[in-house]
Amino acid sequence: MEEMGAKALRLGVPIGAQIDLTYRCNERCIHCYLDHDDHGEMTTREIKDVLSQMADAGVFFLTISGGEIFMRKDFYEILEFAHAKTFCIKLKTNAILIRPDDAKRIRSLGVDSVQVSIYSHRGEVHDGITKVRGSLKRSLEGIRLLREQGLNVIIANALMSNNLQDYREVKALAAELGVKCTLDPTITPMMDGNRSILHLNVGEEDLKRVFRDESLVGNVEEFCAPPVGADQDALDSLPCSAGHTACYVSPYGDVYPCVQFPLPSGNLRKTKFIDIWRDSPQLNEVRSIRLRDLPSCSSCAHGGTCTRCPGLAYLEGNMRGPSYQDCQKSYARTGVPSENLKTKKVAFTSLIQIQGIQYPITMSSGDARTASSAAS
Amino acid sequence: MNSERYVARNSLVAARMLGDEMMVMSAATSTLFTLNQVATVIWNSADGVTPLREIVSDKICSQFDVAPETALQHAEALVDELAGHGILVLSDAPILPSVSAASGAR
Fold this sequence. Notes:
The complex is a heterodimer of chains A (376) and B (106). Chain A is of the alpha/beta class and 376 residues long. Chain A has helices spanning 2-11, 44-57, 75-84, 100-108, 123-130, 135-148, 167-177, 204-211, 214-217, 220-223, 232-235, 273-279, 281-288, 310-315, 324-334, 339-343, 371-375; strands spanning 16-20, 61-65, 88-93, 113-117, 152-158, 180-184, 246-249, 255-256. Chain A has an eight-stranded mixed beta sheet with strand order 6-5-4-3-2-1-7-8, with helices on one face. In chain A, helix 8 crosses helix 15 (324-334). The radius of gyration of chain A is 20 Å and the shape is globular. The termini of chain B are far apart. In chain B, helix 2 (52-60) crosses helix 3 (68-84). Chain B has helices spanning 37-45, 52-60, 68-84, 97-102, and strands at 6-9, 14-18, 21-26, 31-35, 47-51, 88-91. The model of chain B has no long low-confidence stretch (mean pLDDT 87).
């Protein structure tokens, strides 16, 4: 797979893409980063055209997500079309609308995997997060139906303060259901830059405990080892696949480097996918950035091992800057503050998405607070 | 007696060209395969109705410097292996599209 990614990078092929069919949803998750109103979703015909263009451009790994994908009445028409284009398809859904016939149909369309968000094994916690009574029961039933069809299911658990105590049980539940389980301890800002949901992020002490849970990270000593700094290879490395071999398409046809990197790079209602992919000044700028170009991160001890997300950095005001949330994670993992935390330079300055909002962040390495709690 | 073998792509398999190679993902095992140029020719020609022998003589031997018997031998081994992974469907009779879809059962 790594070799394939390297080849795609060399050839300039967008080997992976996520397309969100809609931002509408039948749940109202408290940590969701989306605006659920429909501001003019692409039509069935438009989406099919986009999928054709993506296939022609070389997209192979296609994630179809939302919102809730089953909110689109034409979902199966789109899925059938994607199947005919021989994508390797992953679906993201809350699964609460999946009935036996849906599971069979999904199975018959060669879907590679289905990712379902489960936040807790307890209904009161999960439903409290989704704001839909009975949603855990229905999601689990959906997972069982998918499994009965032999589909690969992945439980995705977004870790936040509300469900922190339940992640081990969710993992056990996944094992019981015969599915994989992933855990992500990052609540991201909303796509419009609104940071009000960041207070849901797990606190520093709890994050430290999570990172020292052997059942999650394996060898704790290795996982939490002090950073060794970035060597020349690391300085020349790319931050991630966003914009390099992967991209994201919104329900409105907007193209971004990644779902977590809302840098507007073109719109498919105006420009062909391949032209945006090849010629977008925004994507080309993203592609030009190496670790050595990052003023703070290139000299940071965590440079070589940091999970810095350029999208989060962008949302914090500078795609060449540090991502405070990742600085926090590096600190929680190793106990060594990043350059950013040491110099207390967290720049939440002018950015289109968050214009007019002030984020007076002050913190020290010993008293790191989340951006939202500092702002509130 | 008809000794022909027919090959069809499993309709549940995902595939895409990357450069001069074909990426193929087996839905059954989520295993990614990379087909080289020769294997890609066979994959692209595996329509279920063209005999493997014909694919080899018309598409392989015409493009690559290889003896027909050797090419067929290699092609037989390849399709057997890919069929073992559920990527291709093999039959001694032409394969209808519905068969190649049904054979993808996990």
